[in-house]
Automatic annotation (TrEMBL), chain A:
Residues 12-65 form the 2Fe-2S ferredoxin-type domain. It comes from Mesorhizobium atlanticum. The keyword Iron applies. The keyword Oxidoreductase applies. InterPro entries: 2Fe-2S-bd, 2Fe-2S-bd_dom_sf, 2Fe-2S_ferredoxin-like_sf, 2Fe-2S_ferredoxin-type, Beta-grasp_dom_sf, Diverse_Oxidoreductases. This is (2Fe-2S)-binding protein. GO terms for molecular function: 2 iron, 2 sulfur cluster binding; metal ion binding; oxidoreductase activity. Keywords: 2Fe-2S, Iron, Iron-sulfur, Metal-binding, Oxidoreductase.
TrEMBL record, chain B:
Residues 1-177 form the FAD-binding PCMH-type domain. Transmembrane segments: none annotated. PANTHER family: XANTHINE DEHYDROGENASE SUBUNIT C-RELATED (PTHR42659). It comes from the Bacteria. This is Xanthine dehydrogenase family protein subunit M. Keywords: FAD, Flavoprotein, Oxidoreductase. GO terms for molecular function: FAD binding; oxidoreductase activity.
C-alpha cells in the first residue's frame, strides 16, 4: 500500500507528557530513541529476543521493539532515564550494578535495570532462581550474569533495609 | 527491521472490530499482543494493509467461571493467566504451561487468544487446549459460533477461522478435583519453542489410570491429540511397559520437521520421552 497516514500519539514518559506524529508502523523503540531522543533503551536484536530495548509500560516490562508507538497511546512509560532517584542520585538498582560490577560492555544494562526494576516491584524479595527466571528475557552477551544477579540482590536488600550477604560459593 | 506501512484501527467493541474487518477485507489483520505478528511484519513475512487492534475491547478481557467451565477472554495475557487465582485453582496446568512460554516481557504482552488462534505448531497452548477439551468462540459477520479445539487446527497457520472472524474466548471444562497434570517441554533455552512437548491430564482410581488425555506440541504441522497413547495407559498402573507403549503410540503420529532443534528422528525420540515424563509426573500429582 502507499504511505499510511500519520497518527498523533501522546503518552507520559518518565513523568513528562510527550506527543508526536508517527506512521502507524513506527516501533515504540524508534519513537523513544529518535523522536524523544532518549537513547538509553538500546536496539540489540530487534527480534524480540535480547531485551536491550526493555522499557516499563503501564507497570509491565515490555520489549519496545515489538510494540508500535500507536499501541502506547495514553501509556505511562519509564525508560532507564527515569530510573534514578528524583534527586538525581543512583537508585538502589543502579547502585547495585555499580557496586557489584553488574555490567561489562554495558549494552544490555538499560534493559536489565529497567526489567529488574519491575521484577522488584512485583517481588521485593526474590530468590536467586526467581531473579534468573525474572530476567530470562534479557541477554548479556558478555555473559556477566553472576554479577547482574548479585546487583539485583544488592538492590533488593537495600530496598528492604536488610544487609546484602553474598551467598557462599 | 521496519514493517511495511499499514493503517491502524482501534475499535472498542467486538461488533466494531468485526465491522472493520468486513469493510477492510483480506488485507486487514486483527492484532492481539502482537508478539507473533509484529516480528513477522518486521521480516515482511506479513504485510497487512490494516491492523485492527483488539486491545481497546474490554469485553475480551475477563476470566470467569461459568458453571462447569472456565471462560477466558481472548485478550487475557499470559501474565494475567499467571496472576489468576481462578486459573491456579481450577486449571493449574494452564499456569504451568504459561510459565514455559517465552520470557517475562513476552508474557506481559502475549495473549491466550493470539496463541491459540495463530495456528503456529510451535505455540504451547494449542496442544494443551486439545488435551483439556477446550472450545473456542468465533465471532464474525454472520454471528457467533463455537468450534472445538480438536476441530480447529487444519495445518500450520491454517485454522477453522473464516476471513472476518475473530476468536473472542476460550472455554475450558473445569477438571475433576484430584486430577493429575503435567506439561513437559524440552527446549534449548528459555524463550525457545519446544523441541518437543507433551501435555497430560489424567485421573487415577485405585492406583490405576481411570481417564487420560495427551497432547503434543511442535511434533507435526499442528498440535496433536495422542488418543492411542492415552488409551494405552488407561487401566494400567503406569508400569514401565505401559509407559513405553504410550510413548511408541505417540511417536507413531508424530511427523516433526527437521530444523535447528534437531532432525525428525531425534525430535520423535524425545517427544516420546516427554510423553513418558508427563505421564509419570501427572500421576504423582493426582490424588
Amino acid at each position: 500500500m502507499a504511505q499510511a497516514k500519520k497518527t498523533q500519539v501522546s503518552m507520559t514518559v518518565n513523568g513528562q507528557p510527550v506527543e508526536g506524529l508517527v506512521e502507524p508502523r513506527t516501533l515504540l523503540i524508534h519513537f523513544i530513541r529518535e523522536n524523544l531522543q532518549l537513547t538509553g533503551p538500546h536496539i540489540g536484536c530487534e527480534t524480540t529476543h535480547c531485551g536491550a530495548c526493555t522499557i516499563d509500560m503501564n507497570g509491565m516490562s515490555v520489549k519496545s521493539c515489538t510494540v508500535f508507538a500507536v499501541q502506547a497511546e495514553g501509556a505511562e512509560i519509564t525508560t532507564i532515564e527515569g530510573i534514578a532517584n528524583p534527586d538525581g542520585t543512583l537508585s538502589a538498582l543502579q547502585e547495585g550494578f555499580r557496586m557489584m560490577h553488574g555490567l561489562q560492555c554495558g549494552f544490555c544494562t538499560p534493559g536489565m535495570i529497567t526489567r529488574a526494576h519491575r521484577l522488584l516491584q512485583e517481588n521485593p524479595n526474590p530468590t536467586e532462581d526467581e531473579i534468573r527466571f525474572g530476567i530470562a528475557g534479557n541477554l548479556c552477551r558478555c555473559t556477566g550474569y553472576q554479577n547482574i544477579v548479585r546487583a539485583i540482590q544488592y538492590a533488593a536488600a537495600k530496598l528492604n533495609g536488610t544487609e546484602f550477604k553474598e551467598a557462599a560459593e | 527491521m521496519i514493517p511495511g506501512p499499514f493503517d491502524y484501527h482501534r475499535p472498542d467493541s467486538v461488533a466494531d472490530a468485526i465491522k472493520l474487518l468486513a469493510e477492510l477485507g483480506d488485507e486487514a489483520r486483527p492484532l492481539a499482543g502482537g508478539h507473533s505478528l509484529i516480528p513477522m511484519m518486521k521480516l515482511r513475512l506479513a504485510t497487512p494493509d490494516h491492523l485492527v487492534d483488539l486491545a481497546g475491547i474490554g469485553a475480551l478481557k475477563g476470566i470467569v467461571r461459568d458453571g462447569d467451565r472456565i471462560v477466558i477472554g481472548a485478550m487475557i495475557t499470559q501474565h494475567e493467566l499467571l496472576a489468576s487465582e481462578t486459573i491456579a485453582s481450577a486449571v493449574p496446568i494452564l499456569r504451568e504451561t504459561a510459565l514455559l512460554i517465552a520470557d517475562p516481557q513476552v508474557r506481559y504482552r502475549g495473549t491466550i487468544g493470539g496463541n491459540v488462534a495463530n495456528g503456529d505448531p510451535g505455540n504451547d497452548m494449542p496442544a494443551l487446549m486439545l488435551t483439556l477439551g477446550a472450545e473456542y468462540t468465533l465471532e464474525g459477520p454472520s454471528g457467533s459460533r463455537t468450534v472445538a479445539a480438536s476441530e480447529f487446527y487444519q495445518g500450520a497457520y491454517f485454522t477453522a477461522i473464516e476471513p472476518g472472524e475473530i476468536l473472542t474466548s476460550v472455554s475450558i471444562p473445569v477438571l475433576p478435583a484430584g486430577h493429575g497434570y503435567a506439561y513437559e517441554k524440552l527446549k534449548r533455552k528459555i524463550g525457545d519453542y519446544a523441541t518437543a512437548a507433551a501435555a497430560v491430564v489424567l485421573t487415577m482410581a485405585g492406583g490405576k489410570v481411570a481417564t487420560c488425555s495427551i497432547g503434543l506440541t511442535n511434533l507435526a504441522e499442528t498440535a496433536l491429540l495422542a488418543d492411542d497413547a492415552a488409551a494405552a495407559v488407561i487401566g494400567t498402573t503406569l508400569d514401565d511397559a505401559s509407559l513405553k507403549k504410550a510413548a511408541e503410540a505417540a511417536r507413531a503420529i508424530m511427523s516433526p520437521a527437521g530444523d535447528g532443534r534437531g532432525p525428525p528422528e531425534y525430535r520423535k525420540h524425545v517427544g516420546g520421552i516427554m510423553v513418558e515424563r508427563a505421564l509419570k509426573r501427572a500421576a504423582a500429582v493426582a490424588r
